[in-house]
Specification:
By secondary structure, the chain is mainly β. It has 8 domains: 58-84 and 118-177, Sandwich (Immunoglobulin-like); 182-350, Sandwich (Chondroitinase Ac, Chain A, domain 3), CATH 2.60.220; 362-501 and 511-565, no CATH class; 587-720, Immunoglobulin-like (Sandwich); 734-799, Sandwich (Immunoglobulin-like), CATH 2.60.40.1120; 807-907, Jelly Rolls; 913-1014, Sandwich (Jelly Rolls); 1022-1121, Jelly Rolls. Helix content is 10%, strand content 44%. The longest helix has 28 residues, at 471-498.
């Protein structure tokens, strides 16, 4: 809900001491008044037992109930109760509530350890006009109203409302119920939608015979919102949409829990798009938080993550985030999520004051320390003292009320800071981190581009806020959290509101966060949650050449934690009234020198820094260099562009490590330091110099450090031109230029620079640092063109032209041919698949020098899987994680070679054009196109052992087959360059299995035979007795005949197969009763013989057929003896 005042803003609940006394009196005098469902009765009390003061009369709670179709609801059951304050850590806690003004807040009240009694309850029903009125005891706490309306043949309509106790007459206002009449969603095979299409469902299980639902816009339909706009009654929520759903079975009974998860698609009102922020960046889709209403606690709770799709069911890519937020996105937007339970559901974003919290883990977000810390930070930021401090980061005419409006500030996340650095101890010490657009951060070994929307709190700060924490530890942790939130918000405010997203200028004193610490607290507060004996301390400023660490007193801590301290603190006329930043220009002289005057793009700058004491007395100078700002920062300006080069990290030293890093310079003394300034990311601190041209560089010594703010001399240097790439992008079919195509230069999948083609299809990218690149061209509707391993050199240009083609349709089970005709050329193919499908993609070179490579793109254009080879065949089994049209992009491995290819795609979950094959049967087929495979299906049971044989019977095939489980995963496979391949597979599920058969290299064609047989219970087997001979005939390639005999453990059995006609080569296998192989024999001559000792008693199987090629045919005799 973009009008956050409706869903809850800051506020507080004030409950007087007399109310607590009254609450306790009512507990003691529980016999004086009893409230039960449906009635209010009094119990006589003797005058001797009565208190001197009588209890106040009950409060009258009233309201009205309407359907969402604007009709009053008569006869609805109304259950009203007073819910006492919750006892939380020895305090009475009143959760946030909806007020008449739309604000929310919380209040903690001192209490004993006594738990509150069960809440008093009364019941009534609405009258013909939907009105209700019910008496309740006048107690401190909150009133909960629950409404239930039942009608024959329809699901129950329910809603609830919370409100603070406030006076003897409490109006609950309008409570809107969903009207089940007209809300039915017609289902067909588990799918359907409501009348206006605002709710769509898929995969609804069969036990749901009737489904009902209504979707609501929280901006217009707030009266229908259940409970209140808070998470667990505490953290305010900003809702983007909510909906009601109920199901009935065939008997008309309610269905609460589903046998399988159903997928729900809810259309988001355009007025709410402004809130649809992605809470899981870098995932390829825009993900949103999903809440459900707990009808037991009557609270909203986050239960999952959903994602956004368009009206066609396609996942909306993260690149569309800005268009959604600013309302320029074209088309409808649906929030999609899965659920196994019917209830009210909601897309919600949590926040406190200006800070949003949806990216934070739920247990961290609902922690009392975090709640109190954010609330305190808001109080400080909006106090006169806070406004004065933050005004240092304002632009002229800044509106602080807008900048710090509810939900308009940065997002707060939690993170394990040990994952931010390769050396965990170096990041563990930070309380919080804000990266901004300048930094590329690394988390858990993966790189992310920083942004100006959020900052991180170290998870260590919650260590002393758990169940075992003392009240002092919670108090200290709350203070450090509040300080850290304000500190990082100072960076955010400078970055966003002063510099419009980039730090073009140095922050005040080189470090806005520490600058703000000094303005508000008079120094930097510290506390070590790992030390059980730690106390908070403060590091006071480095002014006048000294530092001072001291422990904070309880009085200071309690004052800072008390909101009234900040409310009564006088406003300063200007921030400088509290302190003056010392200017040390008359004490310290800084001179910088470069190691040369010109550099190749990407080359590091070698710097020598000389500090000299030019005063008559001694001064202290910091004897370390940690970029940026400890103590030096560098102002590097591109003269032609007139912009500052941003510093991109990683983070330098922590302020709390300072102290012993100063040296004393006597008058005239010098201190010389050397420093290498990297200009590209290489794991070292670096300045992002990406353009050639002339630069100036000046060093700034931060005013946070002794002896104070100082500037160096300025120098000029030249950055030579880098390498370049240019060319054209044209349409493959028409050869016409493609205007507006994007061409990107990437290194290790990271974008370095890009360009857009002009009307003639021309592009040019310059100033690329020497190295190896992937050059990629793309245009809407076309397949991407990719050329890999392109070596670019300084001051040289490389020409690469792209021919992009439109995708062709390819269906499961289909094989197609194509040709890569020029270097960098690609062809693309489109297939439709559903999330969960497993899809085999096979690409084989059939001519030319092509080294086949392909990538499969999701519907949003991100890469799902890819494969490439220096041989003839590239293949991969890809699991689809989204439904919709997927693209296969075919190219050469390096983008340089050309040639013909065959492409085959098939679902292994539900294969298309599959042929049934029964045990004991032999089928034949022909592979006519490179990469082609044929699909066969058979049904079997868990524990079955299946022999599969495949052989080339004409042509140049090398036999290859795969066997897939019912879920599409691979069970077994076999392949050979030669004619015959066979294997024995043990089945691990009872269902239908798939065999895919084709050429081993993917490049050859020809005829083949395929035979399968179950060895533990063979189909069509003939019985054979000891001492008898059976005659048979093999007619088809790979065919085998099956025989069974009964034997006893210990029997020594001889088996002989003799060819009597044709070109058979004798081959037989003997299998145990469980289907495993006992023995086998083969011969290129006419007879094969083998003797086996039977390990168990039971029925044994013999399979006989052709050896070597598997394609011979003829007659044979089989003899067994014991």
């Amino acid at each position: 809900m973009n009008q956050r005042g409706v869903s809850g803003t800051k506020g507080s609940i004030h409950v007087g001491f007399h109310s607590i006394i009254l609450f306790l009196i009512v507990i003691v005098l529980a016999g004086s008044a009893h409230f039960v469902e449906g009635s209010l009765r009094s119990t006589a009390v003797s005058s001797a037992d009565q208190p001197e003061n009588t209890l106040p009369p009950p409060m009258i709670v009233s309201g009205r109930v309407y359907f969402d179709t604007d009709e009053p609801v008569a006869g609805a059951r109304v259950v009203a109760r007073v819910v006492p304050p919750m006892v939380d850590g020895g305090q009475i806690f009143l959760p946030a509530v909806i007020r008449d003004s739309g604000s929310s807040g919380s209040e903690r009240l001192a209490s004993s350890d006594m738990a509150p009694p069960p809440p008093p309850v009364n019941v009534t029903f609405t009258d013909a006009n939907g009105n209700f009125s019910v008496p309740l005891p006048y107690l401190p706490g909150r009133v909960l109203i629950k409404i239930l309306y039942t009608s024959e043949g329809l699901p129950d309509a329910e809603n609830s409302r919370w409100k603070d106790v406030g006076g003897l007459a409490l109006d609950m206002g309008l409570i809107v119920l969903p009207n089940p009449q007209g809300a039915e969603i017609a289902l067909s095979n588990g799918s359907g939608q409501n009348q206006d299409g605002s709710i769509q469902v898929q995969n609804m299980p069969g036990e749901v015979a009737g489904l009902y639902g209504r979707a609501y816009d929280p901006g217009q339909d707030a009266d229908a919102f259940p409970g209140e706009f808070t998470e667990n009654g505490k953290i305010p929520l900003n809702s983007s949409l909510f909906l009601w759903m109920e199901g009935l079975d065939a008997n008309g009974d309610p269905v609460d829990d589903l046998s399988q998860a159903a997928t729900i698609r809810s259309r988001v009102p355009p007025s709410q798009w402004i809130d649809l922020e992605d809470i899981e960046p870098e995932s390829g889709q825009i993900e949103v938080p999903i809440y459900t209403y707990d009808e037991t606690s009557d609270m909203w709770d986050e239960t999952g993550i959903g994602w956004l799709e368009d009206e066609g069911g396609n996942v909306i890519a993260e690149e569309e985030q800005e268009a959604i937020l600013d309302g320029s996105y074209s088309g409808d937007i649906y929030a999609v999520y899965t659920t196994g339970h019917f209830s009210w559901m909601n897309v919600d974003y949590s926040y406190i004051g200006p800070w949003t919290l949806s990216h934070m883990q739920e247990d961290k977000r609902n922690n009392s320390c975090l709640y109190d810390a954010v609330s305190l930070a808001e109080t400080i930021a909006l106090s006169d003292q806070g406004r004065a401090a933050f005004s240092r980061y304002n632009k002229p005419g800044a509106n602080v009320e807008e900048e710090f409006a509810d939900g308009e500030g940065p997002e707060i996340r939690n993170a394990d800071f040990e994952k931010f650095c390769s050396d965990p101890s170096s990041c563990k010490k930070y309380y919080a981190l804000y990266f901004g657009n300048e930094y590329t951060m690394e988390y858990g070994g993966k790189a992310y581009q920083g942004n100006d929307r959020d900052f991180y709190l170290n998870e260590r700060m919650w260590d002393k806020c758990g169940e075992n924490a003392t009240s002092s530890e919670e108090k200290y942790s709350t203070l450090i959290m509040a300080r850290s939130i304000l500190h990082e918000t100072a960076h955010w405010k400078w970055d966003v509101y002063h510099e419009d997203g980039w730090r073009e200028e140095l922050e005040p004193n080189g470090e806005a966060g520490y600058d703000l610490d000094n303005e508000i607290f008079g120094g930097v507060i510290g506390y070590d949650p790992d030390d059980p004996n730690a106390l908070p301390w403060i590091r006071e400023p480095w002014f006048d050449g000294f530092t001072r660490d001291r422990l904070l007193t309880d009085t200071e801590i309690n004052d800072w934690l008390n909101p009234t301290t900040w409310e009564r603190m006088p406003k300063h006329d200007s921030p400088s009234a509290t302190r003056e930043v010392p200017n040390a220009q008359d004490k310290l002289e800084i001179t910088i020198a470069l190691d040369k005057a010109a550099y190749d793009l990407g080359e590091a700058l070698g710097l020598q820094i000389t500090y000299q004491n030019i005063s008559e007395g001694d001064i202290q100078v910091m004897d370390r260099l940690d970029l940026e700002g400890v103590p030096l920062a560098f102002m590097i300006y591109h003269e032609a562009a007139a912009t500052r080069v941003p510093f991109r990290g990683p983070m330098g030293a922590h302020i709390f490590e300072m102290g012993g890093d100063f040296v004393t310079l006597k008058s005239g003394d010098k201190l010389v330091k050397e420093l290498t300034l990297s200009t590209v990311e290489n794991g070292e601190p670096y300045y992002d110099i990406t353009q050639s041209g002339t630069y100036t560089i000046t060093a700034y010594y931060s005013g946070l450090w002794a002896p104070g703010e100082t500037w160096s001399n300025s120098l000029s240097f030249v950055m030579n031109a880098g390498g370049g790439v240019s060319g054209t992008v044209t349409d493959r079919q028409s050869s016409n230029p493609i205007a507006g195509a994007t061409v990107m230069a990437l290194q290790e999948d990271l974008l370095e620079k890009s360009a857009i083609t002009n009307a003639r299809g021309e592009y040019a990218i310059s100033d690329l640092i020497s190295g190896t690149y992937t050059i990629e061209a793309s245009a809407p509707g076309y397949a991407r063109g990719i050329v890999e391993d392109v070596q670019l050199n300084s001051q040289q240009n490389t020409v690469i032209d792209f021919c992009l083609g439109l995708p062709e349709a390819i269906a499961f089970g289909e094989a197609v041919t194509g040709t890569i005709m020029s270097a960098g050329d690609t062809l693309s193919y489109l297939f439709s698949g559903s999330s969960g499908d497993r899809v085999l993609v096979r690409l084989a070179a059939t001519g030319g020098g092509l080294d086949p490579a392909f990538a499969v793109w999701r519907p949003d254009g991100s890469t799902l899987c890819e494969e490439k080879t220096g041989g003839t065949l590239a293949q991969e089994l890809c699991t689809l994680d989204a439904s919709g049209d997927h693209t296969i992009v075919v190219s050469d491995y390096n983008g340089l070679a050309t040639g013909a290819f065959g492409l085959y795609v098939q679902s292994t979950v539900a294969p298309a054009s599959s042929t049934a094959i029964a045990f004991g049967n032999t089928l034949t087929g022909t592979i006519a196109i490179g990469a082609e495979m044929h699909a066969y299906s058979f049904s079997a049971s868990t524990g079955d052992k299946i022999l599969i044989r495949m052989a080339d019977s004409g042509g140049s095939l090398g036999s290859r087959f795969f066997v897939y489980r019912p879920d599409g995963s691979e069970l077994c496979k076999e392949g050979t360059y030669y004619e015959l391949v066979e294997t024995l597979c043990l089945l691990d599920a009872s269902s239908s299995y798939t065999i895919l058969a084709g050429d081993y290299t993917g490049s050859e064609t020809g005829d083949y035979g395929l035979h399968i047989q179950r060895t533990n219970n063979p189909s069509g087997a003939a019985s054979i007795s000891f001492g008898t001979t059976k005659s048979g005939q093999i007619s088809l390639p790979t065919e085998m005949d099956a025989y069974t005999f009964s034997g006893t453990a210990g029997d020594y059995v001889m088996v002989r197969m003799s060819v009597t006609s044709g070109d058979l080569a004798s081959r037989f296998y003997v299998y145990k009763p469980d289907g495993s192989e006992l023995c086998n024999q083969a011969s290129l001559g006419g007879t094969a013989e083998e003797s086996c000792t039977l390990p168990v008693s039971g029925t044994y199987t013999i399979l006989v057929g052709d050896y070597w090629t598997g394609t011979g045919s003829g007659q044979y005799e089989l003899y067994i003896a014991r």
